[in-house]
# Entry
Amino acid sequence: MSVDAPVLPRRPLDTAEAVTSPPSRPARARRRRLPFSAWHLLLLPVAVVFLVPFVEMFLTSLTPESEINTFPRPFFPTSLTTAGYERLFAESDILHWLANTAVVSAVAIASHLVLCSLAGYGFARLRFPGRDIGFLAVLATIMIPTQLLMIPTYVLFARVGLIDTLGAAIVPWLASAFGIFLMRQFFLSLPVELEEAGMIDGCTRVQVFFRIVLPLARPALATLAIFTLLGSWNDLVWPLIAINDDQAFTLQLGLTNFQGNRRTDWSLLMAGNVVATLPLIAFFLVAQKQFVATMTSSGLKG
Amino acid sequence: MSATATPPRPSPVETPGGAGRAPRERPSRGRRLGSRVGGWGFVAPALVIVLGLSIFPAVWALLLSLQEWDGFSTPEFVGGDNYAELVGDADLGSAVVHTVVYTALFVPAVVLVGLFLAVALNRSVRFVGLYRTAIFVPFVASAAATGILTTYLFNPQFGLMNNVLRVLHLPQQGWLEDPHQAMVVIAIMSLWGQAAFTTVIYLAALQDVPGDVVEAARIDGAGPWQVFLAVVWPQLRPVTTFVAIYMTLQAVQLFDLVYTTTRGGPLNATETIVYYLWQTAFRELDFGYGSAVAYGLFFVTLLATVVVTLQQRRAAAREERAR
# Structure
């Protein structure tokens, strides 16, 4: 994983051809006995197992409380109710927390896209004193684990009055070393001629960046946006440390808090889980290709 | 403003690359100076945030680790005392053991499952897209959501797991309430969320395995197993090293799933290093000792990563020479 390896352009997974084995002879013999590929016997149960927790989450959020504690418990509820959701919206600030999380993620994504692409472009294309040292410093920070930073960041945020505000959840997500790295690698892979042409035609660097380079960077920006969305939406550790005021809770913090004080109200807990997770699941289903590209490139950052 | 003053320009895409070269060598002096300083304008905002929230606190944590401080009173400089204390700390010792147990359970499992699923998904059977979706979608579940699901599915009284065991006439288990099983349960649910990641990485790597080599091996009479072991697996080696290291680094930092399931229990059986660090710093307000724990973990993992990476490089180079 050298620094200069291009991160993004990869063949999409869906066009994959089977690499290991177009059916060799024994497999073909087996296929004659089964009306379908033997791989289904393996993949279907695995897929079901992976989906079970989500199915249980949706079902339980709609199950009457009286049925959850019956023994022996039926695998499927005999009646469905929205009582869990009604209690959730009536008795908790879940919508407020949802709004908080939406604000955190929206600001994080906007800021990430602007700041990281600017910095990535600067490191990829511009010459200025201290550039290489600056970029090395950025790379070095990828090695620093979060738990090393928790204590001093907490003290720092306490001094500037960010603790117990939504700002505490936002500030660490304004930019990231991974984002800068990702965008730099992408810009390095673009042909420089386009920008030169723009410069000759009288554009300034800033105009070249916004009018020529950025429109070409859509795939990388999508990757970065998804990375930031996943990270900021699901972040728990840092908000847990920095925010104790339930007016500034994020969704994840609110959910974790339920576990303490609504421990046995399972349909409410699962309803909260659905509210927190469904947006990401839905988004994943419509943009699976981009999610997979994000996972691949966040793996290659190492 | 300059854009309006210039004559209409041809679309940049149509500009032949060669035409742009010559004048670029002589930009006006003012412009060159502008871009020398202007570069900082591009990188400074992100750089200030990234370095300000990492290198600056990292140095600060190093200073804190040499102090005795609760966040309020005057910090007291104690030199290497905190680090000396790490060695004899029995609670930290058992946290290390729990973390190692979790890592030993989780990392081989997530690597092997990822490899297995990638091989299974890397073929054109029908519905493979649906299978992929089902296996990848848990990746978006947060630690908080996973935690609630874990305590529910593995609840000894009414959880799905014991329910299935009951139907199969197998003995009921304590799961998260059993000190011997709790870490296994956490590893299983980590696997549920993280398997997508290793699968995706392996899938990408499988597509880089040269098809003609596989074809050649098959023509030479190798069966699917031989092709995999002799051709594909060696090609995947750098990726395996990478995911193993990456997943180990994640595993030794386990905190959130412990927090959202067992909070370190039962009987401290799931108290990991970072959980212990969090308790020390944010429950007992021992910022100095907490920082020393964090630095201790950082140094050990960094050292291990460097050693393993160098060893792998050397092994790869040796193989290269042997060929």
